[in-house]
Amino acid sequence: MNFQLIGVNHKTAPVEVRERLALPESRLPEACKKLIEHPGIEEGMILSTCNRVELLAKTKNGSADLRGFIRNYFQVDPADFDQHFYEYRSNDAVRHVFRVTSSLDSMVVGEPQILGQVKEAYALARAVGAVQSQLDSLLTRAFAVAKRVRTETAVGSSSVSIASVAVELAKKIFGSLQGKHVLLVGAGKMSELAARHLLAHGAGTIFVSNRTYDRAVTLAEKFNGEVVPFDKLYDTCDRADIVITSTGAPHAIFRREHAERFLARRRNRPMFFIDIAVPRDVDAGVNKVDGVFVYDIDDLQQAVAAHVADRKKEAERAEAIITIEVERFQTRLQSLDVVPTIVSLQDHLETIRQAEIDRVRGRLGKLDPDQELAIDALTKGIVNKIMHTPITTLKTAARDPEATTVIDLVRRLFNLQDRKGQAKSTAAGDQEVKN
Amino acid sequence: LASVHNSISLLAFIIMAFFMLAYAIYKTTSPGIIVFPVVFLLTFVAATGQQPILFTSPGVRTSWLFVHIALIFTGYAALILSFGASLLYLVQERSLKAKKASEIFLRLPALETIDEIGYRSLLIGFPFMTLGLIAGIVVAETTYGRVNFLDPKVTLSILMWTVYLIMLYTRWSSGWRGRRAAYLAAGTFAAAIIAWAANYFSSIHRFVS
């Protein structure tokens, strides 16, 4: 598993550093090509988003000078940049790729965009031939892991901010926000943001009411909404399903009797008050009215906190999944490593056997077919007995993190080169086996 | 429909059909928490009943009777689903008011969705219940010649129907939901059960003659 990864992200590097290394999509193919031309690198891929720049490579022997590549390619001074890099190898690189793809390494954990970004980077690198078999299987696995994390944990299920919590609550009350009316009382930044979120989730008309009429007009124009004069507030309020209040009023604007009146006029269809003003605009008594739900800033913040806590729990579960998946991936790759070694070991010993038979065959004189068979069976039997333990060891080693050492050892013991060089080595192997 | 147990199974089946319909439209299985135990109980009773009570009364042979049973049961099924929905509404409303996101809260569908399930099944159930009662009257008339309105079964059935009507009306006119709607649904449900239980006191509405 000669994977190697180097990168910077939002945790390790400020934006000045990240933007210096960021690559626009148009430059990625060329950069990937350059990357695999770098010495010691067989396959490569570059991920560049606003929060991270990462270079992933499959190397020849487990360590390539990725820092050197960055230095040359980006023409940056390593002294300024080295402290921001993180670098992972083999299993750790695999784990990192899995975590990034599953959005566990994101600034907002669980945000869904990253998966698409990784997929794009992968497609680009593949198109120029920089991603081949090994990186391909790594990335394909990473996408599967991301999907698993998404379906088996709730990491991606909710985003965390006051505005999005408000939207979620509204959805719990109204189901779809389609055609729901929103009234903004007070024209603050926060209520604007909340309104924007609600609109993005399908809410219908926006009404704006503000003590200063002009500001109401400005805000209403932004949303293509309607202005409600402040003195008509109580007459129009019941038309809104969701009321967001953020005035600087020292006393509550909405009290229980107001809410009761609204509800009667609405024939008891539920209403949702989001009160982000401090001091509060909605009296606590309003929440006691059947069918009226009031969430003030503290309630929202608490919901956010609960979400964050939930997420932490879910993220832990996701990490556990990733640990399992890294192991699985390792086993699979290693069993791929082991198979050629077993094959060449078998080839190797078979060649020796044939050579030895050929060598003594002349001295044995004429043999009848039975004797020929007996010699064949005998030699084959010996070879198989000898091979039995190394092969079982190799097979079990496939599941062991030490696999590469075992494979190396076996290769060295039997002097197995890569499969093409093997024929030439038989002479030397010949001697060893005989002794 | 040769026995009481057959008809109980039929009721269970219709309730399930309603549940599936609600599921198909609203993609929620939440009413199942109420519906499943009811269906289980009904099928359990039907399956283990010691001696099936056979309908031996002469009225059974008329096809009007079958129509009567099928319609009334559809009404019952709608009522049970509606009752289940209003219980869920209460739970969900409470957790929204309590401002604590619990597991239940996340799993239950939106308040308005639950409300719609409840209201729609009420609406669907009512015509069935009405027609079922009319069919019942027809059966009674063909069997006994005239309807004795003082018979407990008849009186209670009409009472239940009235409660049902009142519930629909308040729902429709002032949009009662939540706690009050749940009380009403529970009331109607109770009335329906009493009307069912009246079989044991009625002189005309018996399974065995």
Describe the fold and architecture.
The complex is a heterodimer of chains A (435) and B (209). By secondary structure, chain A is α/β, with parallel strands linked by helices. Chain A has helices at 15-21, 28-37, 66-74, 78-81, 90-101, 113-127, 133-152, 162-174, 189-200, 213-223, 233-236, 256-265, 297-361, 369-397, 403-413, 422-434; strands at residues 3-9, 41-48, 52-59, 86-89, 182-185, 206-209, 226-227, 242-245, 271-275, 292-296. Chain A contains 16 helices and 10 strands. The longest helix of chain A is centred in the C-terminal third of the chain and has 65 residues, at 297-361. Chain B contains 7 helices and no strands. Chain A binds chain B through residues 169, 171-176, 264, 266-270, 287, 290-291, 293, 295, 299, 302-303, 306-307, and chain B through 92-93, 96-97, 99-101, 105, 109-113, 173-180.
> Topology as H/E string of chain B?
HHHHHHH
> In DSSP terms, counting alpha (H) and pi (I) runs of 4 or more, how many helices of chain A?
16
| Proportion of residues in helical segments of chain A | 55-70%
Task: Write down how many β-strands of chain B occur, each being a DSSP E stretch of 2 or more residues.
Answer: 0
Q: What does the largest sheet of chain A look like?
A: 6 strands, parallel
Main sheet specs of chain B: none
Unreliable residue runs of chain A: 419-435
Overall structural class of chain A, as computed from helix and strand content, comes to alpha/beta
Q: Please give the alpha-carbon distance between the first and last residues of chain B.
A: 16 Å
| Main β-sheet, spatial strand arrangement of chain A | 7-6-5-8-9-10
- Binned, the helix content of chain B reads over 70%
Kindly report the average pLDDT value of chain A: 84
Tell me the greatest interface.
A-B, 23 and 21 residues
Which runs of chain B of at least 5 residues are low in confidence (pLDDT < 50)?
Answer: none
Distance between the termini of chain A: 35 Å
